[in-house]
Amino acid sequence: MPSSLPSSPSAPSPSSSKPAPAPATGYRDLLRNREFTGLYAGFTLTVAASTLSGFALGTLVDQQTRSPFLTAVSMYGATFATVLGALTLMSVADGNRPRRTVVALQSASLIGVCAQAVPGLPLVVRFALLLMLGFFQSLGTGTRLGLLAEIVPNSAYAPARSLMNITSGGTAILGYALGAVLLSYLSPYGVFLVAAALTALGLVVVAATVRERSVRLTRRPGLRQTWTTNTELFSHPARRALLLNLWVPNGLIVGCEALFISYAPGQAGTLLAAGSAGMLLGDLAVGRLLTAGQRHRHAFALRLLLAVPFLLFAFHPPLPVVAAAVFLASAGFAATLPLQEQLLDLTPDPVRGQVQGVESAGRMTWQGLGAALAGGLAQCLAPGAAIAVVAAVSVAVTVLTRPYVVRAGGR
């Protein structure tokens, strides 16, 4: 089916304006690009700040409420607001001043994290701040991904995303470990201040290294432009199938992870770190060692791997077995790479930022929905049983939607 998203036959697109040297897709080649390195470093610092902030807030809410539902929502609740960004102002991701947009959104996030560090705030205020941060995060992610598609050549896009995903996993491992150590010496409010410092550093790095993009088409961002592009995006069956599989199985498994604090309060950091390590290994293997064709062929198996090991939680095995299962399953998060590649191939250049922002926002929103679903189920069932049920639903969604994803790949 031909794409009905806007195209630009007469105007220069970001990709057509780039020089055409021999493709350089290795991680070292990417890191020689000053702009990519700055974008990458800013992303890494933002992930570290988000990890520490989420861990601190989850710990604070668990101490105050002892509620599995509220604890799960507090750790991943920011993802609920990402859908608001996708539905309202995501077109700013393709505006003609993306660097200024990233800096402004990072500044707003800094204010929000600093506000979380204020002691004595009612939980309702903290959750409101969480939603505000999620809204800014969704717009910032879309803008960063739009910049990424312009900074690196198309042939380097998958390795660039792979490197960012690997770093995200590694940063999360260090973040959870550091969060556990910091909470031994600091209150959750002190951890919020550390997260604010990392957010500020990420802001400085991006402002100093990423240049403004002057080659973009002039598009007036706003609600109408966002809705127009989103309508065309979801009218395409292949894109719908890809988005469904990028969002739902992933989000349900994140919901399982949101119950780790309730399942094993003393060992939650170990399980979260094991999940991050597995994600790091999966992204490294899939993004660096496999070709594009191999990635596409293994996408279905990876989505199954993402969920099946979590079924063991129903039997309450020993902690080493549980940690190994979480590590193995989390390698399946690498299934997002081939699906993202297919989505990029089906997206015209002028709206890449918005489409990638919608994909990221939807994935994060489903992570919040998965956390809420798993947390609500854990109010009725034991946390281990709830994890197994949610994982079974993820397997079912992956199996039932496979024919649609295969057809999308054929397009």
Low-confidence stretches: 1-23
Number of helices: 18
Oligomer: single chain
Radius of gyration: 20 Å
Distance linking N and C termini: 7 Å
Kindly name the structural category: mainly alpha
What share of residues is helical? over 70%
- Mean pLDDT over the full residue set: 80
The largest sheet is: none
Shape: globular
- Report the portion of residues in β strands: under 5%
Encode the helix/strand succession as letters.
HHHHHHHHHHHHHHHHHH
Q: Total number of β-strand segments?
A: 0
Describe, in plain words, how this protein is organized in 3D.
The structure is a single chain. The chain has 411 residues and is mainly alpha-helical. It is built from 18 helices and no strands. The protein has helices spanning 27-31, 34-65, 68-76, 78-88, 98-116, 123-151, 157-185, 188-209, 223-234, 237-257, 260-263, 268-289, 292-307, 319-330, 336-345, 352-378, 383-400, 402-410. The chain is globular and about 50 Å long.
